[in-house]
Write a structure and sequence with these properties.
- The chain is globular and about 80 Å long.
- A hairpin with a 4-residue loop joins strand 17 and strand 18.
- It has 384 residues and is α+β, with helices and mostly antiparallel strands.
- The longest helix has 32 residues.
- The strands form five sheets. Strands 9-19-18-17-15 form a five-stranded antiparallel β-sheet, with no helix packed on it.
- The protein has three domains: 110 residues, Immunoglobulin-like; 165 residues, no CATH class; 53 residues.
């Protein structure tokens, strides 16, 4: 009995292993049949600013896709980071099937996908009969744009994502500040109820071809402004208690069970990656935030008999807690500023304790003046 059971188990394992190997081999043959092998390539690019001037010493983050027989789906990627020269030029020599520009970083500059959307990704193998292969010339580099930042601000960042379904549509509250901030400007792990001051809800039309997403400010002494442009200084006025963004479904098909021979399913597909910007003033201007919204709408038959519509919303939030209007964010600047603020915080804590032990009054103005003098001395020393 035991012997027969063991033989059966080994047979099943052998059959599974054989099936897996055959399946993997078939995938290799299929990829080779489509001529999707890696190709040697040399890519040339140039990075310029808003005025058309070259940006030297910028790091270009490039993801190169290539086939890997040991990876899932036989695809893998590696990161390359060439640096621009004094003329803003860079080049990359590699081997792969495709590549994309993930980011371009230089302190004091910003890389935006919208401005560089056209030259974001490249496919190196032909996808259709007669399609020409991509060729890059050193004398004609691909141009990429960086925006020179204004005065940088110390900012907090957080993000959210949500999707609304027409058959299960519930409002959701999210925070522009998802942590409690003390008087010294530091985050703490405990959330406060008033931080969740934005209410988001969605309404779909009866035919599921239009939608409205409403954002409502729930706090006091503040409001919201919606704009399709990225602003780097918060508006002074024009805030309202709520804003509504409207959209419709355009082009495409149901992504479940879609067939061109079924007209009723060949209905409009959602608009992809529609960008909106919300500007929030909270607590009478103590906080100013820019919320970068990416909206993606999708009709979906799903598993149910009746079709339903989805509206997917993802947002990244940048909040200035210092009461100024600047919304210029740079992660390196924030890291440096955060370290300085924590240093000052620790110094203040020790100075207060020392004054208390001596039964003296802590002089906040004198303390700040001393810190500023030390900062000026450090800056002068760094310039020598």
């Amino acid at each position: 009995m035991l012997k027969n059971t063991l033989i059966t188990v080994l047979s099943i394992c052998g059959l599974f292993l054989m099936t897996s190997c055959v399946s993997h081999y078939q995938m290799l043959i299929w990829h080779k049949g489509t001529k999707a092998e890696d190709k040697n390539f040399k890519f040339y690019g140039k990075v310029i600013d808003d005025l058309g001037q070259p940006v030297p010493n910028a790091i270009v983050k490039i993801s190169v896709g290539h086939y890997d027989p040991f990876a899932e789906y036989l695809r893998s990627s590696r990161i390359r980071e060439p640096k621009t020269d004094s003329q803003g030029l860079f080049e990359l020599s590699d081997k792969g099937s495709n590549f994309s520009i993930e980011n371009i970083y230089r302190y004091g500059y910003e890389y935006t996908y919208d401005k560089n959307r056209k030259n974001h990704s490249f496919n190196l193998h032909r996808r259709a009969v007669g399609e020409k292969e991509l060729k890059f010339e050193k004398t004609d580099p691909i141009i990429y744009h960086l925006r020179k930042r204004g005065e940088l601000a110390y900012m907090y960042t957080n993000s959210f994502a949500w999707h609304f379904k027409s058959n299960d549509n519930k409002p959701v509250k999210f925070a522009i500040l998802d942590k409690w901030i003390d008087d010294d400007g530091f985050w703490h792990g405990k959330e406060r109820p008033y931080s969740k001051i934005i209410d988001m809800s969605c309404v779909f039309s009866d035919d599921l071809l239009q939608y409205e997403i409403k954002f409502e400010y729930l706090g006091e002494n503040g409001g919201i402004i919606a704009n399709d442009q990225a602003l780097y200084e918060a508006p002074i006025e024009g805030y309202t208690k709520s804003v509504t963004l409207k959209g419709d479904m355009i082009g495409g098909y149901w992504h479940h069970d879609a067939t061109p021979t079924t007209p009723e399913r060949n209905t409009p597909h959602g608009k992809q990656d529609e960008m909106w910007y919300l500007y929030v003033k909270a607590d009478g201007g103590k906080y100013h935030s820019r919320i970068e919204l990416k909206m993606d709408t999708q009709p979906d038959k799903g598993r149910s008999e009746e079709p339903y519509c989805q509206a997917r919303v993802a947002g990244k939030i940048f909040t200035n807690p210092d009461g100024t209007l600047s919304l210029e964010y740079d992660p390196e600047y924030v890291r440096k500023e955060d370290a300085q603020r924590r240093y000052v915080f620790d110094r203040r804590k020790k100075a207060k304790l020392k004054a208390a032990l001596k039964k003296q009054t802590f002089d906040e103005d004198a303390f700040i003046k001393q810190i500023r003098q030390e900062e000026m001395a450090e800056k002068k020393a760094s310039l020598k």
